[in-house]
Amino acid sequence: MPTTPQTHDEALTTAARLAEALEPGAAERDRNGADVVPTQALDLLDSSGLLAITVPAGDGGPGLGPRTLAEVARLIAAADPAIAQVPQAHYLLVDLLAVHGTPDLRKRLFAEVLAGRRIGNALAERGGKHAQDLRTCLDAGRLTGVKYYTTGALTSAWIAVSAVADGRVVLAFVPRDADGVAVDTDWDVMGQRATISGTATFTDVPVELSFDYTGVYEVPQQFGARAQLVHAAIEVGIAGGALAAARDYLRAKARPSTEAVRTGFGSAVEDPHVMYRYGRLATRVRAAEALLDAAARTLEEVGLVPAGAEAAARGSLAVAAAKAFGSEVAVEAGSELFALCGTSSTAAKYDLDRFWRNARTHSVHDPVDWKYHHLANYDLSDMLPPNHGQL
């Protein structure tokens, strides 16, 4: 059984070690995409003990909070954002179980999590009018449907599946190896390729473990904010990873522009325009990191069960700001890297374009523009943001 870090500092040390182990293979995993399942990297994640850091103390875990989770996700994402995204839904599901799971459900699944057995997700569908307009159904204890963007499901021990039962949406938990469960590797996108978030098909799968999911969003909640916090951390991690890659390349390989050489500058790090661009980008990355930390601290104050709609709004909007700004900076950093490092840095052997591709792909997970909209609507018109899972 993995050793679960018990404190914030222990979790960060573990995450830093995991990131160090993941970073050398990140480019290769990106190139391989869905052709090669990154089992070794995911084994490192699952055996790290980090999957259980948010399991409540009363259920056998350390009960570490949003600050720890955000920093853990950021550190891993700086090394490999695809691997960092794999457990994103896992952490959301741990939160949901902590609040809405029955004692029996918590006992069974938290024991699995503490043993390093990851929960994947099968929540998204295509063709509906909105996220909860589902065709997957749970009828007489049997689950049938098709899901898409199932990040983490392919290599998980369990899969959480949203489905309609008696007019309500439920969350059903099924073993990954159960009869009738099939997860495909049909994941062909430009970024976050190693997440292998393919199609999952459930055919008459027996379900023993489930709870009402509709009720989660019928009261003020922070599950959307906490889920988005990890997404924000992934974006900020990508930005930091791109900045670090630029720094390493500038120090080791880059040459100054021809005009800079003519002006008397002998290295890229002496080029005044490189210095300006790097300093500006580094400042924006640090600002994104600070905004992420501020959002995590707000969620710490609000708590997993907010006192009311105003408290829930405060948490949601803090994370919305961090996610929106972090996404912009990540995309910018992935592009600015090449302006800093020059033509030679575009060589395929370096795979430095993965930072932009990962940031651009992940940044459209949910609309950033609406986050700014809700921030403005709250400040200007005292309008609370909507109560759903993406804010």
Summarize the structure.
One of its GO terms (biological process) is L-leucine catabolic process. By secondary structure, the chain is an alpha+beta fold. The protein has helices at about 10-20, 25-30, 40-45, 65-80, 80-85, 90-100, 105-115, 225-250, 260-265, 270-300, 310-340, 355-365, 370-380, and strands spanning about 120, 135-140, 140-145, 160-165, 170-175, 180-185, 200-205, 210.
Can you offer a commentary on this structure?
- There is one protein chain.
- The protein is of the alpha+beta class.
- The chain has two domains: 8-217, Butyryl-CoA Dehydrogenase, subunit A, domain 2, CATH 2.40.110.10; 223-381, Butyryl-CoA Dehydrogenase, subunit A, domain 3 (Up-down Bundle).
- 51% of the residues lie in helices and 11% in strands.
- It is built from 13 helices and eight strands.
- The strands form two sheets. A four-stranded mixed sheet has the order 1-4-5-8, covered by helices on one side.
- A hairpin with a 2-residue loop joins strand 4 (158-165) and strand 5 (168-175).
- Helix 4 (66-79) runs antiparallel to helix 10 (272-302).
- It starts with 7 loop residues before the first helix and ends in a 10-residue tail after the last helix.
Q: Which features does this protein show?
A:
alpha+beta, four-stranded mixed sheet, Butyryl-CoA Dehydrogenase, subunit A, domain 2, four-stranded antiparallel sheet, 13 helices, Butyryl-CoA Dehydrogenase, subunit A, domain 3, 8 strands, 391 residues, globular, 2 domains
